[in-house]
């Protein structure tokens, strides 16, 4: 299994201080920054787009893991590449031709991720032959996308387990409700990229939370 990457979700940060908030979690040991992009259409909430990400780029060299909770994700590939995003993760449910989209993302020099919502199955992902192999990362959502601070859905862990068994060397990310009382379930199932909003940004000691997550995944 690839090594742990802890990706604090900036959704739980103070958006008016995005640069300082990013630097704060990087100082506390974050490997990646998870940037939640919502369009008010694919999910019932709105956050940020490429202009904000390109401003943030000037404040940190951290790896940008962009989670695109948008309809028609193929529309924004160029803009996000220009904004300085390293990984463009789109939702399987939002596009007709995910294989072509992975190619489009790679052509712009970004890594490609495919996200699945809680009700989307591994079979639905694998119905697109070669997609899981081609993608650099698979994101198994552990809450319904749209908001931070929701309860972790342990019932999604069999999907993580099945994907880890099939793809031992791939980055498998979990997102939603990850905290000190849920990390064991995710780590045991085989997730190695851990997104955490509330549990990192609202922690008294974010460095300890990040370190614990990393130890649990790498154990
Ligand atoms: C939810 C987002 C998550 C969210 C996680 O749609 O994709 O990244 O910020 O927040 P927590 O860790 O608070 O559940
Ligand atoms: Zn996310």
Automatic annotation (TrEMBL):
UniProt xrefs under Pfam families: Ribul_P_3_epim (PF00834)
EC number: 5.1.3.1
Record: residues binding substrate: 9, 67, 146-149, 177, 197-198
Residues reported to bind a divalent metal cation: 34, 36, 67, 175
Superkingdom of the organism of origin: Eukaryota
NCBIfam families hit by this protein: PRK05581.1-4 (NF004076), rpe (TIGR01163)
Family: Belongs to the ribulose-phosphate 3-epimerase family.
Protein's recorded name: Ribulose-phosphate 3-epimerase
